[in-house]
Every structure is written in C-alpha cells, then in structure tokens.
C-alpha cells in the first residue's frame, strides 16, 4: 500500500475532519496550525468558520460569538470554565455598544492547540450553554516528545490608523526523564493601533413628541408617533492596545496508567483610547420635516447648540486560570480529578468633556443621501474658542472582579457488552462577582475663554473617507496633556459641584453576587451492532443545584441608602442522549436530544432598588429563573474521500422562558402608594430552528499544478420565534441571530508555498431593543482576508496577511433600513511575520 504523507494546511484540515468523524457528540473542531495560518485576528473570528457560529464585532475585530442564534454560551480552557470580570453576560469594560473586550477576543490564538465547539452537551459536560460550549485546548508537552522551540516576530500596519506595530510569540516544549515528564511554556505580546471613523450614537432614535414643535408627530395616523434620530455623532476613535498571554503546562506520566498535570493560562488586554466627535441634541424647534413612508424623520432643520466632545478612556481586562489535576486508568476503571481557580478583573477609567456653542444656531440634517447622514452646522464655528462653553464634565470609573473556584471528580467503569462503560461524577464551584461603580456628572456651563487653556484643535485628514464634510474633521477638543479628571477645574466649582467631583461609589451600580453551584451526573456509553450498522452513543442525567446571594443597595426617594440582601435557590435535572449510526465506513448519521440551562446574566441579579420622588423606580431582579432550553439535533455526514466531508444538520430549540424588560406597579414596603418599577422578569418562551451545511475537500483529482487547491465552505440558516415585539407590534428575532451565514475558504499549497483566501458573510441581525421599544439592527456584513506563506527552509517561514480587504462599513439601523443609526469603518491591516522553529 502506498503511504501518503499529508502536511501543512491539508494536514490540519484532515485532523479536524477526523476529530468530527470520531466524536460521538455533535462536535466541530479547528486545529491550531489551521487557525494560526488563517487570517483571523483572534479566537472569536476563528470560530466563525464553524457552521452555525456567528461573530459579533467590536472595534477592529471579532469580540463575541452567537452559536445557533444564542449568546448564552460557555467558554472553557482545557475543559475548565473561564469567566469575565463582570460574570455571566459581561462583554468587558467598554463605553461603546460594540464591545472590544469579549472573553474570546482576549485569548491569543497562538497559545491554542485546537478549538472544539459542542453544539449539544452530554451529561458529563458543564452546564450553562444554550447555544454551545467552546473548549479552548492548549498544547501538552507529552503530545510531542523531545525538545522543540518556536519564535515568531510580526510587523503589522493599520492603514486607517497609519501606524505600524509589532507582535512576538515564543514557545518551548521539552520532555525529560525518559519522556515521562514534560514542560511547555509559551508567551505572546501584540501591540495594535486601531482607529474607527464614522457616524455613531449614544441615545439613538426615539419617538417624536409634542415638544418637538411639529404640526404632526404621527404622519400616517396609525396612533404610533414617528421616529427621530436624537443623537447624530461623527466620531473618530484612536485606540492603542496591548494584548499579552502566557501559557504553561507541566505534565508527569510515570506510567501508562497515571497522568498528573499543572496548567495555567494568563491573558490580558489593555487599551488607551481617545474619542472625538461632533454632535447635537435633535429636538424642540424642528422645521421643514421630510418623512419616509415608515414615519422616519429623514430631513429637517433645528435651532440647537452644536457640540464637540472628548472622551479619554483607559481600560484593562485580564484573567488567570490555573488547574492541577490528574487521572489514573486501569483495564476496568478510570478516575480523574481537578482543582481549578479562575480570577478575572477589569477596569475602565472614563473622562468625558463636552464643549457646546453658547448660542443656539441653525443645524440642517439629511438622511436621504445613502448611508451617511449629512449634518450642516450652518451658524456654528467649532474652531472658535470664544463661541464655546464647557457644558458637561463626566468622570466615571468601573471596577469588576470575579473569582471562580471549582473542584471536579469523574469516575468511569468499563464494561463488556452493549453498555461499554458507565460514568459518574460531580463538580462544585463558587462564583463571586464584585462590581464597584463611581460616576461624577457636572454641568458647569463655563465659557472656555474664562478657563485655563485646556483645548486643542482636532484635525483629521480624510476623516471617514471624506464622506462626512469638513466641519466634522476639524474642531476644538480637550487637550489630554492638560486634563487630570474632573478635579482639573476644581478652583472654578461651587460647593455643590465640588461635592459631585468628590463623589464616592454609586450605590445602585455597585453590588456583589455570590453563587455556589453543585452538579452531579451519571452517563452510560453504549456500542451495539444492528445488522450492518454500528450504533454508539450515550445517555445520562445531570442534576444542578444553585444557591445565590445578591447584595445590593436600596435608595429611597430622599437619597437614603441601605444595603439589601436576597437569597435564591434553584434545582434542575438535565437529561441528554445521543446516538451515532455508522451506516458505512463513509456515512455517519447522528441524532440527539438534551435539556440545557443557563443562569441569568450576573448584572441582572443585582438586588438594588432606586425609588424616585415621582413614585417610579428602577430595580434589579435577583429572583429571575434560569433559561431552560429543550433541543433536538439530527445530522448526516458523508466522508467521501480522505480529508473530505459533506454534512448537513438540522436542529430545533424550545426556549421555555426569555428574560424581558417590564414596567409594572409594585407594592414596596415603606411606601403608601404603589411604585411603577422598571425591572426584568421571566417572560414567554420561543423557538429556534435551523439548518447547517459543511463541505470540505482537497481537490487532489485536478491535473498536476492544480492539485494543490482545496476548499472549505459552510452555510447556516437559523430562524427564531420570540415574545419580543417592537413599538409597532412586529415580532423581533433573537438578538445576535442572522438568518443566513456563509463562510468560504479556498487554499493552494505546494511543498514550500501556501495561499489562502477567507470570506465570511452574514445578513442583517437584531442587536437589541432601543428607545421607544424599536429594534436596533446591523446590516449584512462581508469580510475578506488573505494569507500567503513561504517555507524558506525547514526551520524558517515567512507569512503575509491582509485583513479586512473589503473595508466593509459596519452599518446599524433603527427598525427600518433607511433609519441609519451607526455607520463606521476600520481600514485594512497588513502583517508580515517571520517564524523560526526547531
């Protein structure tokens, strides 16, 4: 038999196919070399190549993922859970809608051996995933015996930022004592200059009101007011980031039966951000209105002050995850145990300062000219110091810490017969989250000419490719070198402003959540022959017990603060079963069903309550029930050639209850009248269903010279039914869910050269619900990247990457496509790296 050695791109794609083929569960894998060589900015972007996974983008790259339309997923490192500083549902320390600090964006891809995505989890897998579990697996030293080392240096140029940055990676792996003891250490650090240009918003759209000065606020007479973009901002973000990571693994196998290890993983991202923008508050004196057919105010004139705005934001987010454990296996049984600790922390220091014209003037806006609104400050000169006043000072800080301590025990008894083994185990973990929030908001209205010189002229060449106009690329902002927080102008404050500047923690935004979760499982694995068909799989139960203590603050109408504590317990049984039918050597069918849960986002469990003087209030919801999902999966997979697969899968998820925002009247102790409270509650359920397709094949049947070609493509269709409706009564889909998603990778490889092109497209999706209960959507988004690598010698490789080649603008709209809410661009990024391996 002829022996064929497969290496390079084909090798790692073949390994991913084998991992999928051999798994009992519904599993997709991405192998490390494959991930490292593809043009992916981080782990989050690598995952979008898995059918059914869609990536949410922050500034300059992917940040979080949805799996089968669900954002409630679990991230593991080597099988243990890792969390963000803000707990479940946290998207990192950011002042912007699009997070840049999601957990998956923090993990440097060069430290990873493979990614595994479980779309339906067995009883032995950790609970908490409604969409799926992402397991980030790092390298182990005894997987590759001997001594090995790799050093990589990278230069990266950001076209929009106009900066060239550096990145390095180093790894050493060695085995000792007759290959029974191994050490692996790897580290990486990357500096990145990111810039975003475009139109953005904070308040977005709202409903027209009688205060806007229009003759009608309901042009079509349907009883629902039209919508207006209240807060149009042309902004530039300059972000200097550093991403660091260290992974270390010690492994000792003194015999074939015993395997002991110590494993630690550290990741950190820090950011120094400057943001500048122009704007105005759109209201009050609206004239010459032009409406769309959907009652969106598309053009008008107002008489309002014009603004320039400055934000300085320093952020950091880091986690350290460490575990010690081991396993012992005999012919009859195996035993494994692990102790793990994950500590995460994040911080954000934000200074926001607004300059504003001292007199209102005419401002004209027009949203009819494509996707870029035109805003004309007719009567304002934003470069003239004498026309401006300091209107707002906003000094804010947020600090979050979470600690997850876990102990796990697993036992498996091997058997003969149809039931091949029985597993049982337990996992106990405590999750402690502490959030501390401080906010000082001062409205001084000081004339700039009466203050010390704190301003400088912001000027940006070719801002937003010239589409925004000159007024939005040149204006006065705060000089960072002259600004030291709200205390900079302390000599000018009155006593009330002094007190605000020195304010301590915000009691409503500061809270502590302590949770203990105990889980127990039993699972049976089976393997039977039914005629010519081999059927294997597992079935089991997982019992989950949770106790939670939420400590917040109650703030009365007079501003009095008193701590308040809530205690909640939950218990749930989660059955699961999967069957894998090996119909032939090449054809596999899988069918499975499971019940899954995740507990509510940590921030929603805050026990705080703020009652205002008008008998309204704002409250957290510590007694929220967990999300429960019942799901079914079916897939058919044809492994028709070496390294090739064609598969199709369908799934269905029944969500028993979504969490929704409500405003309801409640009787609160200490108040004689009912209080109208804004609060999240468990609402109605919904359904998610979809189709996933995968095709992967090296085209070795082509003529010589072309037989190095290969392709991989995925397509997913996902649809949902939810209880969410907008102001017009239209049913909204799940946030983060695109109905259609396409990923295509084409590669060409010879012995010394390799080329790849990767394309991803997802269609419109709902991001959330905005003011006036209107849906906020992202338009379809396409991304194209390419790489080329040259193996100069057996040890030296040169790699070229080009990212974001289409320079697609990220466009957001409100309810209707003509209602542009946000439109930004990031520019291309080009990289060259040199890797030397021993």
UniProtKB/TrEMBL annotation:
Domain TonB-dependent receptor plug: 20-133
Compartment list: Cell outer membrane
Keywords, sorted A to Z: Cell outer membrane, Membrane, Receptor, TonB box, Transmembrane, Transmembrane beta strand, Transport
Domain TonB-dependent receptor-like beta-barrel: 381-805
Key word Transport present: yes
Gene3D superfamilies attached to this UniProt entry: TonB-dependent receptor, beta-barrel domain, TonB-dependent receptor, plug domain
InterPro entries in the record: Beta-barrel_TonB, Beta-barrel_TonB_sf, Plug_dom, Plug_dom_sf, TonB-dep_rcpt-like, TonB_rcpt_bac
Keyword Membrane in annotation: yes
Membrane protein topology class: Multi-pass membrane protein
Family, per entry: Belongs to the TonB-dependent receptor family.
Annotated protein name in UniProt: TonB-dependent receptor
Protein's organism: Microbulbifer elongatus
Lineage, top ranks: Bacteria, Pseudomonadati, Pseudomonadota, Gammaproteobacteria, Cellvibrionales
């Amino acid at each position: 038999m002829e022996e064929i050695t497969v290496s390079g791109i084909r090798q790692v794609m073949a390994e991913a196919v084998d991992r999928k083929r051999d798994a009992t569960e519904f599993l997709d894998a991405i192998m490390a070399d494959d991930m490292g060589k593809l043009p992916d900015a981080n782990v989050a972007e690598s995952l979008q190549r898995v059918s059914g996974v869609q990536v949410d983008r922050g500034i300059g790259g992917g940040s979080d993922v949805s799996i089968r339309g669900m954002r409630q997923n679990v991230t593991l490192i080597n099988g243990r859970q890792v969390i963000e500083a803000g707990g479940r549902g946290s998207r990192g320390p950011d002042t912007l809608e699009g997070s840049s600090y999601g957990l998956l964006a923090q993990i440097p891809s060069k430290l990873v051996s493979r990614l595994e995505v479980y779309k339906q989890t067995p009883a032995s897998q950790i609970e908490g995933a409604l969409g799926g579990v992402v397991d980030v697996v790092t390298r182990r030293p005894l997987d590759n015996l001997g001594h090995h080392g790799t050093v990589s240096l990278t230069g990266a140029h950001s076209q929009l930022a106009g900066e060239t940055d550096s990145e390095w990676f180093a790894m050493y792996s060695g085995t000792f004592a007759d290959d029974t003891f191994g050490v692996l250490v790897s580290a990486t650090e990357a500096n990145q200059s990111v810039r975003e240009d475009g139109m953005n918003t904070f308040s977005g759209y709202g409903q027209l009101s009688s205060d806007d000065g229009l003759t009608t606020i309901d042009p079509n007479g349907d009883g629902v007011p039209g919508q207006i973009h209240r807060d149009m901002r042309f902004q530039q973000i300059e972000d200097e980031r550093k991403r660091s990571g260290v992974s270390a693994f010690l492994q000792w196998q003194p015999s074939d039966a015993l395997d002991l290890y110590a494993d630690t993983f550290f990741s950190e991202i820090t950011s120094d951000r400057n943001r500048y923008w122009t704007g105005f508050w759109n209201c009050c004196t609206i004239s010459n209105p032009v409406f769309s057919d959907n009652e969106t105010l598309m053009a008008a004139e107002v008489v309002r002050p014009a603004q320039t705005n400055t934000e300085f934001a320093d952020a950091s987010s880091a986690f350290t995850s460490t575990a010690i454990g081991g396993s012992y296996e005999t012919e009859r049984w195996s035993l494994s145990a692990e102790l793990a600790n994950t500590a995460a922390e994040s911080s954000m220091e934000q200074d926001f300062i607004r300059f504003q014209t001292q007199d209102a003037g005419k401002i004209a806006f027009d949203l009819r000219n494509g996707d870029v609104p035109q805003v004309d400050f007719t009567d304002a000169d934003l470069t003239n110091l004498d026309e401006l006043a300091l209107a707002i000072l906003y000094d804010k800080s947020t600090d979050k810490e979470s600690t997850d301590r876990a102990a796990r025990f697993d036992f498996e008894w091997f058997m003969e017969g149809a039931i091949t083994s029985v597993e049982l185990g337990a996992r106990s973990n405590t999750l402690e989250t502490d959030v501390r929030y401080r906010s000082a908001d001062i409205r001084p209205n000081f004339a700039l000419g009466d203050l010390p010189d704190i301003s400088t002229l912001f000027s940006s060449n070719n801002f937003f490719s010239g589409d925004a106009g000159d007024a939005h690329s040149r204006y006065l902002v705060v000089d960072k070198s002259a600004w030291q927080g709200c205390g900079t102008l302390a000599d000018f404050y009155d006593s009330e402003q002094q007190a605000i500047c020195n304010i301590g923690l915000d009691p409503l935004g500061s809270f502590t959540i302590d949770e203990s979760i105990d889980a127990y499982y039993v699972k049976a694995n089976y393997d039977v022959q039914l005629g010519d068909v081999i059927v294997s799989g597992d079935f089991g139960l997982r019992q989950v017990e949770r106790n939670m203590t939420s400590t917040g603050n109650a703030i009365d109408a007079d501003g009095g603060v008193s701590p308040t504590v809530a205690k909640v317990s939950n218990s749930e049984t989660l059955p699961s079963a999967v069957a894998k039918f090996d119909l032939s050597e090449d054809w596999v069918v899988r069918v499975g069903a499971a019940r899954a849960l995740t507990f509510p986002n940590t921030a929603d469990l805050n026990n705080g309550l703020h009652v205002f003087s008008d008998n309204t209030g704002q409250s957290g919801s510590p007694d929220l029930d967990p999300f429960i999902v019942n799901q079914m999966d079916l897939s058919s997979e044809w492994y028709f050639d070496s390294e090739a697969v064609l598969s199709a899968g369908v799934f269905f998820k029944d969500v028993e209850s979504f969490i929704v925002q409500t405003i309801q009247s409640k009787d609160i102790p200490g108040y004689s009248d009912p209080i109208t409270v804004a609060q999240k509650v468990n609402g109605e359920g919904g359904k998610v269903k979809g189709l996933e397709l995968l095709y992967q094949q090296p085209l070795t049947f082509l003529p010589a010279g072309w037989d190095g070609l290969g392709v991989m493509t995925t397509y997913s269709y996902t649809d949902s039914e939810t209880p969410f409706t907008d102001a017009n009564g239209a049913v909204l889909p799940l946030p983060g869910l695109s109905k259609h998603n396409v990923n295509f990778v084409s590669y060409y490889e010879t012995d010394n050269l390799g080329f790849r092109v990767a394309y991803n497209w997802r269609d419109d999706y709902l991001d959330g619900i905005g003011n006036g209960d209107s849906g906020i959507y992202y338009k379809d988004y396409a991304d194209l990247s390419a790489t080329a690598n040259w193996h100069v010698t057996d040890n030296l490789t040169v790699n070229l990457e080009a990212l974001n080649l289409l320079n697609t603008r990220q466009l957001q709209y409100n309810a209707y496509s003509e209602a542009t809410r946000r439109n930004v661009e990031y520019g291309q990024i080009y990289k060259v790296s040199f890797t030397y391996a021993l």
